[in-house]
């Protein structure tokens, strides 16, 4: 009976992990059009920074209620702050700014480039050489992104240059933060680590936004408040809890490839929710970028 239960338990854990992964991917993907729509009412740094900061406080309260440890060893504070600013703060700020110039669907596709920068930065920092197969796979992903950037012609692409630069800056910073996290292991429970990362990463972004942007919360519509609630509770809380639950139950490779659903959901949701034009160029870029990154992860 015990032997029969163990495979059933393992299968149940894997199924629950896949469900959590699906929730994470859909939740993060839907956030792209929701962020884009919120920018019509609130500036990017204020809205993104505050939602992340409140989300971190909610996660900290959840951990406290569950009796889980939040303490951080003194020697780790500096590296934790650096990694948090790179992986969370930079992404929150740069992607929010990118959406001022880019459609949400294009921003979602550009986010796929993160594994490319992780692979390239892991070579000099971690000594992980890029194999020929992985190099080809990453080149395919970059071709897909190039199709997206150049597909509308020179003049149309030129007007989006600030958005492209912000999106790539955010992706590079996340890649560097990911590599440094692996280079400097943190003896902190995963959920506590995520809570501190979100809080430390979003705190300076919220401060800068409140200091330099003009956010009128009194004029925020019902849709705007719902968008803020979504970004706070779903994007930063539910999705991160589900992400770490998936990592505990699934192989890392499966979880990583599963997140490739994020840009797919982002592109399709942007077309449905914001009525963004989705044509051959967008889908070709998406397929090439996804295919290249998926091949790189498996090689």
Question: How would you sum up this structure, described in words?
Answer:
This protein has 299 residues and is mostly helical. The protein has one domain (13-298). It has helices spanning 2-38, 44-66, 77-98, 104-110, 114-126, 132-150, 154-159, 161-183, 190-212, 222-249, 252-258, 261-274, 280-298. Helix 2 (44-66) runs antiparallel to helix 9 (190-212), helix 2 (44-66) packs across helix 10 and helix 3 runs antiparallel to helix 8.
Low-confidence stretches: none
| Shape assignment | globular
Major sheet size, sense and barrel closure? none
- Name the structural class: mainly alpha
Q: Quick recap of the structure?
A:
The protein has 299 residues and is mainly alpha-helical. Helix content is 81%, strand content 0%.
What is the element layout, followed by pairings?
Elements: H1 2-38, H2 44-66, H3 77-98, H4 104-110, H5 114-126, H6 132-150, H7 154-159, H8 161-183, H9 190-212, H10 222-249, H11 252-258, H12 261-274, H13 280-298
Helix pairs in contact: 1-4, 1-10, 1-12, 2-3, 2-9, 2-10, 3-8, 3-9, 4-12, 5-8, 6-13, 9-10
List keywords for this structure.
globular, 299 residues, mainly alpha, 13 helices
């Amino acid at each position: 009976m015990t032997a029969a239960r163990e495979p059933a338990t393992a299968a149940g854990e894997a199924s629950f992990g896949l469900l959590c992964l699906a929730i994470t991917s859909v939740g993060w993907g839907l956030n792209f059009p929701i962020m884009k729509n919120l920018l019509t009412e609130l500036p990017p740094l204020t809205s993104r920074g505050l939602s992340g900061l409140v989300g971190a406080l909610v996660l900290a309260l959840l951990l406290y209620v569950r009796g889980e440890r939040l303490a951080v060893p003194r020697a780790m504070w500096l590296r934790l702050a650096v990694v948090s600013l790179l992986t969370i703060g930079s992404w929150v700020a740069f992607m929010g700014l990118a959406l001022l110039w880019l459609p949400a669907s294009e921003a979602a596709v550009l986010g796929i480039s993160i594994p490319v920068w992780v692979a390239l930065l892991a070579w000099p920092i971690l000594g992980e050489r890029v194999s020929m197969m992985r190099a080809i796979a990453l080149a395919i992903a970059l071709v897909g992104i190039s199709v997206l950037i150049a597909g509308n012609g020179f003049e149309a692409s030129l007007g989006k240059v600030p958005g492209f630069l912000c999106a790539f800056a955010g992706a590079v910073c996340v890649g560097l933060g990911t590599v440094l996290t692996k280079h400097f292991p943190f003896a902190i429970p995963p959920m506590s680590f995520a809570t501190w990362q979100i809080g430390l990463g979003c705190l300076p972004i919220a401060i800068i936004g409140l200091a330099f942007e003009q956010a009128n919360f009194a004029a925020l519509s019902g849709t705007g408040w719902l968008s803020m609630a979504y970004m706070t509770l779903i994007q930063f809380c539910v999705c991160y809890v589900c992400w770490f639950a998936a990592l505990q139950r699934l192989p890392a490779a499966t979880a990583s490839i599963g997140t490739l659903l994020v840009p797919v959901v982002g592109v399709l949701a942007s077309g449905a929710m914001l009525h963004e034009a989705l044509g051959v160029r967008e889908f070709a870029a998406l397929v090439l970028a996804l295919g290249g990154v998926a091949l790189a992860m498996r090689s």
